[in-house]
From TrEMBL, chain A:
<protein>
    <submittedName>
        <fullName>Methylmalonyl-CoA mutase, C-terminal domain</fullName>
    </submittedName>
</protein>
<dbReference type="InterPro" id="IPR036724">
    <property type="entry name" value="Cobalamin-bd_sf"/>
</dbReference>
<dbReference type="InterPro" id="IPR006158">
    <property type="entry name" value="Cobalamin-bd"/>
</dbReference>
<keyword id="KW-0413">Isomerase</keyword>
<dbReference type="Pfam" id="PF02310">
    <property type="entry name" value="B12-binding"/>
</dbReference>
<dbReference type="InterPro" id="IPR006159">
    <property type="entry name" value="Acid_CoA_mut_C"/>
</dbReference>
<dbReference type="GO" id="GO:0016853">
    <property type="term" value="F:isomerase activity"/>
</dbReference>
UniProtKB/TrEMBL annotation, chain B:
<dbReference type="InterPro" id="IPR006098">
    <property type="entry name" value="MMCoA_mutase_a_cat"/>
</dbReference>
<dbReference type="GO" id="GO:0004494">
    <property type="term" value="F:methylmalonyl-CoA mutase activity"/>
</dbReference>
<keyword id="KW-0413">Isomerase</keyword>
<dbReference type="Pfam" id="PF01642">
    <property type="entry name" value="MM_CoA_mutase"/>
</dbReference>
<dbReference type="InterPro" id="IPR016176">
    <property type="entry name" value="Cbl-dep_enz_cat"/>
</dbReference>
<protein>
    <submittedName>
        <fullName>Methylmalonyl-CoA mutase, N-terminal domain</fullName>
    </submittedName>
</protein>
<feature type="domain" description="Methylmalonyl-CoA mutase alpha/beta chain catalytic">
    <location>
        <begin position="30"/>
        <end position="541"/>
    </location>
</feature>
UniProtKB/TrEMBL annotation, chain C:
<dbReference type="InterPro" id="IPR005129">
    <property type="entry name" value="GTPase_ArgK"/>
</dbReference>
<keyword id="KW-0808">Transferase</keyword>
<feature type="domain" description="AAA+ ATPase">
    <location>
        <begin position="42"/>
        <end position="186"/>
    </location>
</feature>
<dbReference type="InterPro" id="IPR052040">
    <property type="entry name" value="GTPase/Isobutyryl-CoA_mutase"/>
</dbReference>
<keyword id="KW-0143">Chaperone</keyword>
<protein>
    <submittedName>
        <fullName>LAO/AO transport system kinase</fullName>
    </submittedName>
</protein>
<keyword id="KW-0342">GTP-binding</keyword>
């Protein structure tokens, strides 16, 4: 019985957690095991939590505009820890122009405002490793 | 007798409408009734429930003349990148008919970190302007006469530090502190519950707040010492009733804290102000504004025995709902903001920020900020909505809705009282849970198509990615680091150390008002991170424990 | 990667992958547990349980920090219930322990109960063993004391602590009847709330009815305010006092023997249950029998005899 485990985390100083919490609940209701780690985390804390829980997915949420710095850093740290099979996704106020760069840095998908949670669920189901 | 005839007529009408709706199915899921009549406001008593504008219970407004005297303050929330960039934007807004300033600070500033702190990585200058020391504040208000303008600062945990910086800049301009007008948000409870930019645990945070009340009552008497904010609670997903209920519960906690600290309620209550969200449902919002004034007036009069009318008035700043802006078809947001503006104005707000159409994507450009400001001006000068006071007063629906929201708010306040007051209810996670449940329901309603958001789940279309978004590049961090280095090289470091040591010692003695000590540290060019740093050492840091 | 070898070298990724293997019942799980077994038995295991909202994870966080101050490494297994509706779960304990994330002397694993054919206590027990082999000195197992399987897990700990809070009203009755009696230590958390004194007295009175496991040991009642880190030291002192008591009296060996016995029994039960599920319950013949029973064409007693004699042949 291998349930999909998702870490929902907010790196940086941004306190807007409405989206992260709604997504966390929607993922739970879609049958995933969700670890919600709250706000104001460093990329190091997020990567270590992902390792300890051996999650399949790390879902990052950020509305402050620091995504170009912080999202890639999480990916990098996960790799350093040998967590090479984790699906990393991101969401928040993220301009389209930033998305190619984030994808190149290893963020599998970026969900912008207005995305239904069902789309996140479908993406995880289709892409989890 | 009249009501009986009316009841009979109403029943006949409903039977007819029900029959008709078999042919033309109504949108039956809607919460309001199909039609409102005098039956819905039975027992309505004009003098008791509404009264006249500027009179208890202030349902129709807090001033006797409202917008027939002067319009609300058109206060555009702005700030990004460096103090230099933001200063330019402020002067542009004032030159274009903005009547007050509203400062947005970046997250490191809001959480008491210098731009050079490792925690600030990637965040410097992003959601607002980066302020590290008095040197930045001097640039931020360069060529802005602080005796002429009123300034609102969205700052909470380190509100005392930023207020002291403002006082210090004014002093350099030759403006005494008793001439200063403006607001600091200073509302820590909603930070724990909904917004997240807390630093210290509740007890020292409440002490800082009452220290500010006390200090300002003496030295900055025209300053609004707190803006008790429902805005962020609503943004976090609450309903309209929850927004005002949780915020007024927070307000009760602040009043209790100040009274406990030995202050007379009428000495500070007149400087308390509120901050509402103007959401999409126009009539519900109007009712919310009206209900909130009535609830607060009763709280102050009946619960706290306030004597002055000023103490019972809920004066409110409003911002249109940021979370209702859509990234899809962003031009539609102009229309949403216009309707939200109409709601705030018919609700009788004292000041208003209107969001820009591109804010679901990035910080607003000058062009989109201008449209947002013009929206207020069109509503003020062209729409007629501001021509008479409380234009919806007496509407069966709006009065019934005002009563309903008031009742729901009282129910929540009672529940929160039972839990031991707002700080306890937040510590127990009750308020957060209620907000989260509403947010989740909202989202699920959208996904199930029970709630329509144009361009998002209906009337969608393929579109090009928007162009011309405002970008704050990563170089701001470096610029700020250089500025901090320069400040530290120039200032008297021994003096700074002495001021910080004095502040630290005072933190440990809860009978000392910290504001004068913070002001001294600020004037010696201690950085915000240094000042908050010593307070962190003594007070510790708050950790959120919100469960889902 | 040879998971066992790497765990013994204190490779954190290997520990994590090892726990995943047992949690998800991967093919290599039995192999891992077979090889790891002889490397276990060093850690001291502490069960922490109590009703929802008692502040267990905050207290666990503080206890872990206190053990770290005393130079011990700490593993934590935090168990949360799976939603019976969706099969998903919110594993909410880690949010209270994010400070511990940067400490290499700590490893936290969240687990969902997942339900179905038992196995939760076995999986949690295996996770404990893997952390033990990794070299953790102290292992804290935290569960909500509501379901029997959760209670079973903490019951097998060396020392079990039950956490309660004032103001739970009638709930205390349920606790009296249930989990309180398994506590070697009782902790009143959120002790600054009204009703702490009353609760303390009630619990003292209940302790007058002594239980067998603790002959010679009267469970101390500690008071904590975990959110302010008050009372943690005393709790850890009590844990260590209980350990000393168990060691001096030789009861620790008894407990561990009992634990091994229950583990093996559980393993047998799980295996047998699965066998029955696969070879009996999920068969067309069984469905037919149920139909017959419903039509009252036969009766359950001979059906059971029939099945058991077939299974046990």
């Amino acid at each position: 019985m291998a349930n999909i485990k998702v870490l929902v985390a907010k790196p940086g100083l941004d306190g807007h957690d409405r989206g992260a919490k709604v997504v966390a609940r929607a993922l739970r209701d879609a049958g995933f095991e969700v670890i919600y780690t709250g706000i104001r985390l460093t990329p190091e804390q997020i990567a270590e939590a992902a390792l300890q829980d051996d999650v399949n997915v790390v879902a990052l949420s950020l509305l402050s505009g620091a995504h170009n710095t912080l999202f890639p850093k999480v990916v990098e740290l996960l790799k350093e820890k040998g967590m090479t099979d984790v699906l990393v996704i991101g969401g928040g106020v993220i301009p389209d122009a930033d998305i190619p760069g984030l994808k190149a840095a290893g963020i599998a998908e970026v969900f912008t405002p207005g995305t239904p949670t069902s789309k996140v669920v479908d993406f995880i189901n289709a892409n989890v490793k | 007798m009249a009501n009986e005839t009316l009841k009979a007529g109403f029943d006949a009408y409903m039977a007819k409408a029900d029959a008709a709706s078999a042919k033309f199915p109504e949108r039956a899921h809607l919460e309001p009734n199909r039609l409102y009549t005098p039956l819905d406001i039975e027992g309505f008593d004009y003098e008791k429930d509404l009264g006249f504008p500027g009179e208890y219970p202030f349902t129709r407004g807090v001033q006797p003349t409202m917008y027939r005297g002067k319009f609300w303050t058109m206060r555009m929330y702005a700030g990004f990148s460096t103090a230099e960039e933001s200063n330019k934007r402020y002067r542009y807004l004032l030159a274009n008919g903005g009547s007050g300033l509203s400062c947005a600070f970046d997250l490191p500033t809001q959480i008491g970190y210098d731009s050079t702190d490792p925690m600030a990585e990637g965040e410097v200058g992003k959601v607002g302007v980066a302020i590290d020391s008095l040197a930045d504040m001097e640039i931020l208000f360069d060529q802005i006469a602080l005796d002429k303008v009123s300034t609102s600062m969205t700052i909470n945990a380190p509100a005392s530090v930023l207020l002291c910086m403002y006082i210090a800049v004014a002093k350099k301009q030759g403006v005494p502190s008793d001439a200063l007008r403006g607001t600091i948000q200073n509302d820590i409870l909603k930070e724990y519950a909904a917004r997240g930019t807390y630093i210290f645990p509740p007890k020292p945070s409440m002490r800082l707040i009452t220290n500010i009340f006390e200090y300002c009552a003496k030295y900055v008497p025209k300053w609004n010492t707190i803006s008790i904010s429902g805005y962020h609670i609503r943004e976090a997903g609450s309903t309209a009733s929850q927004e005002i209920a949780f915020t007024i519960a927070d307000g009760i906690a602040y009043v209790e804290a100040a009274i406990k600290a030995g202050m007379d309620v009428d000495a500070f209550a007149g400087r308390l102000s509120f901050f509402w969200n103007a959401h999409n449902n126009v009539l519900e919002e109007v009712a919310k504004f009206r209900a909130s004034r009535r609830v607060w007036a009763k709280v102050m009069k009946e619960r706290f025995g306030a004597k002055k009318a000023k103490s019972m008035m809920l004066r409110v700043h409003t911002q249109t709902a940021g979370s209702m802006l859509t990234a899809q078809q962003p031009n539609n947001n102009i229309v949403r903001v216009a309707l939200q503006t109409a709601a705030a104005v018919m609700g009788g707000t004292q000041s208003l920020h209107t969001n820009s159409k591109d804010e679901a994507l990035a910080l607003p450009t000058t062009e989109s900020v201008t449209i947002a400001l013009r929206t207020q001006q069109i509503v003020a000068y062209e729409s007629g909505l501001a021509d008479t006071i409380d234009p919806l007063g007496g509407s069966y629906y709006v009065e019934a809705l005002t009563n309903k929201i008031e009742k729901e708010a009282w129910d929540y306040i009672e529940k929160i009282d039972e839990l031991g007051g707002a700080p306890e209810a937040i510590a127990k996670g009750y308020i957060q849970k209620e907000i989260q449940d509403s947010a989740y329901k909202w989202q699920m309603d959208i996904e199930a198509g029970r709630r329509i958001i144009v361009g998002v789940n209906k009337f969608t279309q393929e579109e090009e990615p928007p162009k011309n978004l405002l970008r704050v590049d990563g170089s701001v961090g470096k610029l700020q680091a250089d500025k901090i280095a320069k400040v530290k090289a120039k200032r008297d470091n021994a003096a700074v150390a002495a001021k910080l040591a004095a502040l630290k010692a005072a933190c440990a003695d809860e009978h000392v008002n910290l504001v004068p000590l913070i002001l001294e540290a600020v004037e010696a060019y201690a950085t915000e991170g240094e000042i908050c740093g010593v307070m962190r050492e003594v007070f510790g840091e708050y950790k959120a424990h919100t469960a889902l | 990667m040879d998971i066992v070898e790497e765990i013994l070298k204190q490779n954190r990724l290997a520990l994590s992958k090892g726990i995943t293997a047992v949690e998800n019942e991967y093919d290599n799980a039995v192999d891992i547990m077979t090889k790891i077994y002889t490397h276990t038995g060093h850690a001291y295991v502490i069960g922490i349980t109590g009703p929802p909202g008692a502040g267990k994870s905050t207290l666990t966080d503080k206890i872990a920090k206190e053990f770290r101050k005393r130079g011990k490494t700490v593993g934590i297994v935090a168990i949360d219930p799976t939603s019976p509706y969706s099969g998903g779960a919110i594993l909410g304990d880690r949010i209270r322990m994010m400070d511990l994330m940067m400490d290499s002397g700590i490893f936290i694993r969240s687990m969902a109960t997942r339900g179905s054919l038992g196995g939760l206590s076995q999986k949690a027990g295996d996770a404990v063993k893997l952390m033990d082999a990794f070299g953790m000195d102290i292992i804290l197992v935290e569960t909500v004391g509501v379901g029997q399987s959760e209670v079973d897990i903490v019951k097998t700990a060396d020392t079990t602590m039950v956490v309660v809070i004032p103001g739970m009203g009638d709930d205390i009755q349920a606790i009296k009847a249930g989990i309180l009696e398994i506590g070697d230590l009782l902790t009143i958390n959120k002790a600054d709330r009204e009703g702490a004194d009353k609760l303390n007295i009630e619990m003292e009175m209940m302790l007058e009815l002594n239980n067998e496991k603790n002959a010679g040991w009267r469970p101390p009642i500690n008071r904590t305010i975990a959110s302010k880190d008050q009372g943690t030291e005393a709790v850890v002192d009590s844990i260590l006092a209980h350990r000393d008591f168990l060691m001096k009296t030789g009861k620790l060996d008894d407990i561990r023997k009992a634990r091994i016995k229950s583990e093996v029994t559980d393993m047998v039960n799980v295996r047998v249950n699965r066998y029955i599920d696969k070879n009996v319950v999920r068969t067309a013949e069984f469905d037919e029998t149920i139909e017959k029973l419903q039509r009252r064409e036969t009766e359950p007693y001979s059906v059971v005899d029939n099945i058991v004699s077939k299974v046990l042949k």
